[in-house]
Amino acid sequence: MKIGVPKEIKNNENRVGATPAGVKELVKHGHTVYVQHTAGEGSGFPDEEYEAAGAQILPTIEDVYAIADMIIKVKEPIAPEYPLVRKDQLLFTYFHFACDEELTMAMLKSGATCIAYETVRDRQGALPLLTPMSEVAGRMSIQEGARFLEKPQGGKGKLLGGVPGVKPAKVLVLGAGVVGRNAALMAAGLGADVTITDISLPTLRHVAEVMPKNVKTLYSSQHNIEQELPTVDLVVGSVLIPGAKAPHLITADMLKIMTPGTVLVDVAIDQGGCFETSHATTHSDPVYTIDGVVHYAVANIPGAVPYTSTMALTNATLPYALQLADLGWREACKKDPGLAQGVNIVNGEITFKGVAEAFGLEYNPLSL
């Protein structure tokens, strides 16, 4: 199979869809890999390393899309890439269709097959291709939240961990999934006073058993969240409904009960955000303020640490990329039902229920 690895063109996205080590494995399996010039540079992988691994370097993104049967990326195609995607081409990347109608319509029109990292399941029902980036984003949410709590950045001027004689900042983490647990662990390690919420009591019991003593658990309800907001300093939103839009756990009205300089970090922004007042931002312009509350809603948080993120992501995606390349997507999905759940769009049809429901469009199960 001819496999293309284009350079990401989203704002400040320095990750790349395959490392030289991944390319070497694909070539070893008999596939031809085309990598766009400087595609891996932002992650610390120069063209020479790809060539040494057996890749062919192509000068432009148009060249890569034109020749490849399968495109391996990190982020969803953006508008300049839409015309490059062609019928029967396989795209393997993060899509987050449910919060982007323009992207959804463009991919339907293209006739391509779109397999979304974020809805692939493993045998335990977990999300193996979302997990590594959730781990990075969860940890980064605290790193970025701590930065924007600083007074020059618009925050309250609080040090997350405090110092002897001065109380630490209060951190509220909404959702105890992979992002939430990593955020809580990072905040706790810095010495913050952490509360993590979820609607699953078994999950909260597990968190209470394994987390440091400065992490408290709280059942997630509107009342309980409202009780926390007047005294909290940093809120991390990390609620996920796989393949569907995130619910709004903090409404616009709830901002009024928060003290000025409070920081909201919306890690769920890829799926529409779990704060009503969230809209996607970029690493070059990451925050905005509403009612005195600082909002951080960068849609590609792991892109700020591309070396770590690329290595973590491709560790997870490479086995699936090999299956798709070796067998073709149809046979690979027959053999692996979890991979089949990643198929969101095929030849102008939506095959993932959450995406169809998001836009009121027809849902056609992959089995049909």
Structure, described:
The model has no long low-confidence stretch (mean pLDDT 96). This protein is α/β, with parallel strands linked by helices and 368 residues long. The chain has an eight-stranded mixed beta sheet, with helices on both faces. The protein is built from twelve helices and 15 strands. The protein is globular and about 65 Å long. The protein has helices at 20-28, 47-52, 61-67, 101-110, 131-148, 178-189, 201-210, 222-228, 306-327, 329-335, 337-340, 353-359, and strands at residues 2-5, 32-36, 56-58, 70-72, 90-93, 113-116, 170-174, 193-198, 215-219, 234-237, 263-266, 287-290, 293-296, 343-346, 349-350. The longest helix has 22 residues, at 306-327. 32% of the residues lie in helices and 17% in strands. Helix 9 crosses helix 10. The chain folds into two domains: 2-120 and 306-359, NAD(P)-binding Rossmann-like Domain (Rossmann fold, 3-Layer(aba) Sandwich); 133-304, Rossmann fold (3-Layer(aba) Sandwich), CATH 3.40.50.720.
Topology readout:
Elements lengths: L1 E4 L14 H9 L3 E5 L10 H6 L3 E3 L2 H7 L2 E3 L17 E4 L7 H10 L2 E4 L14 H18 L21 E5 L3 H12 L3 E6 L2 H10 L4 E5 L2 H7 L5 E4 L25 E4 L20 E4 L2 E4 L9 H22 L1 H7 L1 H4 L2 E4 L2 E2 L2 H7 L9
Parallel strand pairs: 1-2, 1-4, 2-3, 4-5, 5-6, 7-8, 7-10, 8-9, 10-11, 11-13
Antiparallel strand pairs: 6-14, 12-13, 14-15
Helix pairs in contact: 5-6, 9-10
